[in-house]
User: Fold this.
Amino acid sequence: MSTVSGMTTFVGGASGDWRVLSISPVKGEGLALVPHLAILDETAIVRATDSVTGASGVRWFLRGVRSYLRYVERAEKTRLDEASPPIGRPEATRAALIPIRKSAAWWDLPQDERRAIFETRSHHIADSMKYMPAVARRLYHARDLGEPFDFLTWFEFAPKDADLFEDLVRMLRSTEEWTFVEREVDIRVER
Amino acid sequence: MSTVSGMTTFVGGASGDWRVLSISPVKGEGLALVPHLAILDETAIVRATDSVTGASGVRWFLRGVRSYLRYVERAEKTRLDEASPPIGRPEATRAALIPIRKSAAWWDLPQDERRAIFETRSHHIADSMKYMPAVARRLYHARDLGEPFDFLTWFEFAPKDADLFEDLVRMLRSTEEWTFVEREVDIRVER
Assistant:
């Protein structure tokens, strides 16, 4: 995982490389339905700011930064680095953007108690690994930016692995960790 | 520690409640010398944006957010909460703002290895606790904001505890953790 902290902006609106299939409120408030999703990196957003903010049809922006590892330990990192497929595989034409906000109760916990819930009891890393290399994943942090969500997770997979991805999502939502989620939206797209 | 993620902006310029005593580059590039430091919370910055950005004498802004605990464990949190003095004690008329950026090598480490350096080997929490309740401390996170520094730490103390504070700073700079610091500036102020 790179530690480059460039900001990425996901733009829901009338244009973008990804066609939106569904936007489902999983917990809490949803997001406005839009036909397209555009993903702008730091350079692109600077170039695109005028046109994007002035464009008709833009309904929402979600911003996040790739950042450093908050829970992953060395042995897990080694296995993740080996098993993780890259973003942008030609066959991975389906994707999901899942923004999540966790509760104040979660953020008030010290590091060891969050780690215990996240991995020791919820197996977030170990169980997610079973879905590699079919599902590629990239995490963006948003909490310190004052965004409405704490994390944006981007998943990519081939259409043949769509059922497997549903399993992954169900697994993540059945954990103790997930009881701390107070807002989640599930955005499915294809290109 | 509160988990409210409101942004705080430290403004170096011609005005502000704190008079600058010194601005010393400890490692890497320093910051422009200014006579005053103003501290603006989220509400204030919105109100002050026009006047601040338009004001003569403003040389730099440093932004950060109070955020959740990255390394502190439950037992440490309990002791910290008991021992930590509040910000704003009337007798604490001296303060230091110490912005720090750590190296890519630090941020590439997984969580367990950063924790081992931070506390197991550098005793950051345990040794800092010896300086309480004389020195009050507030940490602001800035890395995910794309700021030039990763952290801004604000320390407050009474003039009679100035020597003690020098001990604290010396202690922090003698650790293994500090070998990962690639930029640090030490700004001393009084009100």
